[in-house]
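Objective 1b: paired records.
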Amino acid sequence: MLIIRTDSTPEIGTGHIMRCIALAQAWQDRGGEVVFLSHCGSKLLRQRIQDEGFNLVSLKTPHPDSFDLEFTLAFLRNLKTSGQKEPIVVADGYHFDADYQKAIKENGYKLMVIDDYNHLPLYYADILLNQNINAPELNYSCSENTVQLLGCKYVMLRQEFLRNRNFKRTIPTKARNILVTMGGADIENITLKVLKAIYLLNDLDIEVKVIVGPSNPHLEEIKFYIEDKDLPASLIYSPLPEEMPEFMKWADLAITAGGSTCWELVFMGVPSLIITVAENQEGIGTGLEKFGAARNLGWFLRIKVNTLKEEIRKILYDGIREKMYLKSKKLIDGLGLERILYEVTQL
């Protein structure tokens, strides 16, 4: 049994839960049972977990509130006393610090920690997973017995993406179809900054699809801007799971935050402009640009609307999009979950 401890709030975003859904799908396909222990503010996201057939136990307050660890350990003890198979705990969230991990381990449970940027002085885990391109360069401090799964060999993709592993893309001379996706929350409303840049392009020969996630607090403002400026854009709020790969197939270019969506875009071969919106995303953007699979625009606070407009204008006609596509096809093979679950079953 997998016990997945992960959360979603406007500050945390939706990416941790979404990639854990990928892990849970693969585990369930192998006949395993999954329970999400989660503080999740989005009703749509809670419904998504349950629609997948996973059990969801809601936590009222997350760590560092003491309730979290007390409740989680009590839940695990109850499983043991009820005769359930020994659970394996998966912790995905930057607030699950060394003390939290240590407590899980010291109470006798197997633990996999999912991380992005080596932000802790020490990790207590049986398996430490970082699926990002820069992960092999990070010098993690952990037990010599910890299995470290680092790099894009271990990218977790949901079933709706894996079904499209044979998709082949045609790169047009001009990128006309632009996908804007700034994460499930986008607290800083970078989506609006991108739309302002697109408006300044004054290009009527493009079409834009704007993905707005379930935790985004700026929905009405974005909707008003699109209508007020008569942008050639359609707004898609919290798309269905099977819709995202179709939007990515449609897109000639994506403008995206530097989170987990990058790996879906790379897998689907979408040339992308990446905007960093959080510290944990820095290595993703720089790593993908170095590899040649995307262009990294850096931190959102440093990007002026006019600069962003020029970056978009340049790449619309740039042959580098073909090179990005070819590079992206070499980076992710879609077998990451198989590799991860092999190690999990060895615990």
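Objective 1b, second protein:
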Amino acid sequence: MRAAVYHGPRDVRVTSVPEPRGPGRGEVMLRVALCGLCGTDGHEYAHGPSMIPLERRHPASGHQGPMIPGHEFTGVIEQCGQDVTGLPEGTRVVAGAGHWCGSCPPCRAGRTNLCRNYYTYGLNTHGGLAEYVTVPAAMCTAVPDSCPDDSAVLAQPMAIALHALNRSGAAPGEPVVIIGAGGIGSLLVAAAASRDMPAHVLDLSPERLRTALALGAATARTADSEGLEAVAEARVATVVEASGTASGLRSALALTPPGGRTVMLGLPSAPAEIDVRRAVISEIDLVSSSAHVCATDLPEAVQALTRRRISPLVVDRTVALEDVVAMALEPLVERQLPGKAVISLR
């Protein structure tokens, strides 16, 4: 089969590789239709390996060596292993990408994203930038006929956005401030809109701000002193930092009123200093959000994407697998993509 294989920094090769092993107990083999790329893929491509176990065996997945990336994928079940129920062959599905053991304390508490044996397909073992991939059936959610592939491929990052809203504690209908309207930030705006939560968005890009409004943001302002002051006056109790920048995190904390909550969703590339003194004196809750809980967040993501098609607003391009480097990874790293890149395996 054809696949994109990571061999090191800026070394991804599209080549022929053996098909994955047949599905074992509780597993399914997918014929991949589409696979999205995110900022983590770009970071691994340009500056990795950070999460990809190229030189050292991953303690949970067991993988070591060149690896097929891609953790945002949708496809059709080609084969089912033993004990797979509810997902017959031919079913269109999205994969949550994260593997959990189901027996450790976090798993038993329902926080499977914190599993002690957690690993991610496409980051810690072979993923979806290939014609076929074998994954646990438990991490797959069926896609209704009314949800096209270009919407379904957004389900995994949408689930991450919904999980962040769950972590915020904000109820449907309550307002939120979102700092950063890039890849995950734009989906956070859409997730908030799906719950009728007025989103007040801050970003430096006029194009991203226009997209945020189209996705349903209540307001969209430039993240300068004037914009920050205007949002601060609203005294919104929940602020989500989605830019992954140190300045964004500092702004998020500054905008959170006493007794409010700052949710850290964006992943900084380096340690960031924040005003802990203000957080303590003002009793501001600092909450982090990582990945998603597949059993609850992924089905809600599929439902939201079925109700409303947002792919024309958040996907910049869909390219063939052969063009993944030149037309997707390189522009992603060089910040030349105003939206997401999606790779077609069809």
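Residues 27 and 136 are 4 Å apart (CA to CA). The mean pLDDT is 96.
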